[in-house]
Amino acid sequence: MLIGINGEFVRHSDKSFEYAVEAAARMGYEAYEPVLIDGRDLFSEAGYYHGISMDEDALYYKDFIESRGLRISGVSAHAPLMRPDVGVPFLRRAIRFAYQLGAPVVNTDEGLRPKWMGEEEAFQIMKYSLTVILQTAERYGIYIGIEPHNEFTTNPKTMERILELVDSPFLRVNFDTGNSYLSGHDPYEALKAVAHKVVHVHAKDIGGTLLDEKGKVYGTPVGVACGEGVIDWEKVMLILKEAGYKGVLSVECGTEEQAQKSLEYLKNLRRKLGLGV
């Protein structure tokens, strides 16, 4: 297993994509997961946000990341499956961008369900969205990693139903440990249920004031340093090992200090478990 990081660790310090990649490389991370945005963003343009625009040249980003000795684990491209007018064009574009970038997976979730939409209607709309999106994903050989992040994906039963909406080997899971825990479900049982379909992992630990949110929310953008929260990382890594997972643990935390601590903790645990690269 490789230890990677999502660019969110510099968001609160208002740093750029270039800064995030160089910081990750300097710390010793092995992979990087960029966040994709559509169109232009004032903060990104000014160097205050790490998101990268799909209007730009994907090969520039690819070269920049790889020249720092990092692999590209995937892209974070969250768009609502229950809003096909938004989610379908965004994710199809993200697939094409990921292909040029050399990223094997596009990570997303179902989004927030509109108040006017019933549950059965939601699943029919998600089926339509995934059918169209996966036609593009299959052509480009890019996985779609559905992440536990909202009401249907954090519930193991409805997550399983989503994964059965379309019969495609490219419909997989980006498992987020922290979101699963906060939703109130057992994150280890939830992971076991989908481990055979996991293609990417968001390594997110939960601690501090976030603990008060358990059972009240479906997720959080970032967690605390891995090893300083409630997630049993040894159990997580052993479940993944048993399932044959050889991908990336992409850390999602809020500061550079937490990023450094997470890397040291996960590398030591990986060595202990004999999961080194």
Kindly summarize this structure in a few lines.
The protein is of the alpha/beta class. The chain is built from 10 helices and 11 strands.
Would you write up a description of this structure?
- The chain is of the alpha/beta class and 277 residues long.
- It has a single domain (2-273), classed as Divalent-metal-dependent TIM barrel enzymes (TIM Barrel), CATH 3.20.20.
- The chain is 42% helix and 14% strand.
- The chain has ten helices and eleven strands.
- The protein has helices spanning 17-27, 42-45, 58-67, 84-101, 119-140, 156-163, 177-182, 187-194, 233-242, 256-273; strands spanning 2-6, 31-33, 36-37, 52-53, 71-72, 75-76, 105-108, 143-146, 171-176, 198-203, 248-251.
- A nine-stranded parallel β-sheet has the order 5-2-1-11-10-9-8-7-6. It has a two-stranded parallel ribbon with strand order 3-4.
- The longest helix has 22 residues, at 119-140.
- The chain starts with a strand and ends with a helix.
- The model has no long low-confidence stretch (mean pLDDT 97).
